[in-house]
Design a protein that fits this description.
alpha/beta; Rossmann fold; 2 domains; two-stranded antiparallel sheet; transcription
């Protein structure tokens, strides 16, 4: 009986990206190999990793300055690829029409599955691989990505998505979540769980990308009504803050205030205030010892039940779970 050949995983490290974009998925696949080698009854074959450069040199320098040596250029690969993963993306180095996109488009039909880490989704989009499909990417680039590629259905809430044989993952560390999901798909939950345990990782992270995202980019609203109101709003969050009160503060009619506010921010005044309440509550949860009830009162979020409901609606995680995940490290050491 012939031994099952390992699945060839080609990881493409894009220049000028975070090392974790590359190292995270690679370490997951190698951890899975170790599990399979230690437990022959759990599966056979495992993985073979190949780093392939998308540029004309086999040396790829990451954002941290660490240099990655790739054994091959993508154009030199002449073996069947099981899984192809584009790790990150350099928007400055790869303009539309770049030869790498043509290579991706030509190679995609020959692979079992293809995926991306972080904004590696841009490469898949430029190659036309994501047209008409569901995808995710780093939450920070979601609006820009959706505007640039309207044929793609973007949802930056999940850590990773699958549409057919196309897999996309969110920001940086989400490549680890995706790799664990691929291992589970290939060899089952026990192998994936064992691989995660070796790396001291959860098999599935609780929550969604939204818990890491910023709900309001106030710095981009400096010259808007919202930007001018922001300091005053912060001081009065415990109050009811009706639209009439905000309009009066700006010496505008309610109708005109609503119209201008939505045009400048894309949000109704009520939705903006609600998001601001959540942002301030998050800071209290991260940096203070205030109780949940105190935070809810200071931020105008009603009681604990109301605050929990609002948190779940906006960032898909409860206030208590958020505090456990994001509380200042010093507090954790003192406990």
């Amino acid at each position: 009986m012939s031994k099952e050949a390992p699945k060839l995983i080609v990881v493409i490290p894009m220049p000028d990206i975070f090392l974790l974009d590359i190292a995270g998925p690679c370490d997951v696949f190698m951890s899975a190999n170790r599990v399979l080698n230690e437990n022959p009854g759990m599966g056979a074959g495992g993985y073979e990793l190949l780093l392939a450069s998308p540029v004309d040199t086999k040396k790829v320098v990451t954002k941290s300055g660490v240099e990655i040596g790739c054994p091959a250029l993508v154009s030199e690969i002449d073996r069947p690829i099981d899984t192809l993963i584009v790790a990150g993306f350099s928007r400055m180095r790869f303009q539309s029409g770049h030869p790498f996109f043509h290579w991706l488009k030509k190679t995609y039909p020959k692979v079992r599955r293809i995926g991306s880490v972080c904004i590696g989704t841009i490469a898949l989009a430029e190659a036309g691989i994501l047209d008409g499909k569901n995808a995710t990417t780093h939450w920070e680039f979601s609006q820009e990505f959706q505007y640039r590629y309207p044929a793609i259905k973007v949802d930056t809430n999940p850590f990773y998505t699958r549409d057919g044989n196309v897999y996309t993952s969110g920001g940086v560390s989400s490549g680890i979540d995706l790799a664990l999901a691929l291992v589970e798909e290939d060899y089952g939950r026990e192998v994936a769980l064992s691989a995660a345990r070796k790396l001291v990782l959860p098999l599935k992270r609780p929550g969604f990308q939204s818990q890491f995202s910023t709900l309001l980019q106030v710095h981009s609203l400096e010259n808007s009504i919202a930007g001018r109101l922001h300091p005053w709003l912060i001081r009065h969050l415990a109050e009811a803050l009706s639209v009439e009160q905000l309009a009066e503060r700006c010496n505008m009619s309610v109708r005109n205030f609503n119209r201008v506010f939505q045009k400048e921010t894309g949000l109704t005044p009520a939705k903006f205030v609600e998001k601001l309440r959540i942002e301030v509550a998050r800071k209290y949860l991260e940096d203070s010892d205030l109780t949940m009830d105190q935070i809810a009162e200071k931020c105008g979020l009603g009681g604990l039940v109301s605050m929990r409901r609002t948190f779940m609606r906006h960032i898909d995680i409860s206030p208590s779970d958020y505090r456990r995940s994001f509380r200042t490290s010093l507090h954790t050491l003192e406990i």
